[in-house]
Amino acid sequence: MIPGRVFDAAGTQVGTYAVDSTLVYVHGAGTYEWYIGDFGYVLADGTLVARGPYQRAAASAPGALTRSGRVVAVGTGAYAGMRGQVVVTPNPDGTSTHSFTLIRG
Questions:
Q1: Which pTM value belongs to this model?
Q2: What is the Cα–Cα distance from 5 to 55, expressed in whole angstroms?
């Protein structure tokens, strides 16, 4: 489990997240690793669970992450009945931006 904090655009913490993933493929003599993961986001007004693949650089190539999308599979509270996607974009400082597109129904 990899934990993290969720911040809004103003830098205020608005929730937490946790990633539970499984290594499924190693490429380039261990340079890149592909995972399938469940991403749980706990926000003040509900939760979201997203699932999908993502790429992580191995120690031999730090910072070599790529932008990836995941399907939002389920939500609770204010997010009940929502579906959509979250796109995770790595930032140069080692953090990442998680951008959600959600629709009801």
A1: 0.81
A2: 20
Q: How many residues does the chain have?
A: 105
Give the amino acid at 54: Y
β pairing state of 32-43 and 68-75: unpaired
- Residues 5, 13: contact at Cβ < 8 Å? yes
The domains of the chain, with CATH numbers, are: 2-104 (2.40.480.10)
Nearest-angstrom CA–CA distance, 38 and 101: 17
CA-nearest of 55, 82, 53 to 70 is 53
φ/ψ (deg, to 5) at 64: -90, 50
pLDDT (tens digit, 9 = 90+) per residue, 6-40?
998 899 999 999 989 888 888 776 667 888 889 99
Joined tokens for residue 23: 């290594």
Band (49; pLDDT cuts 50, 70, 90): very high
CA distance 98 to 105: 22
Q: How far apart are CA 26 and CA 90, in angstroms?
A: 20
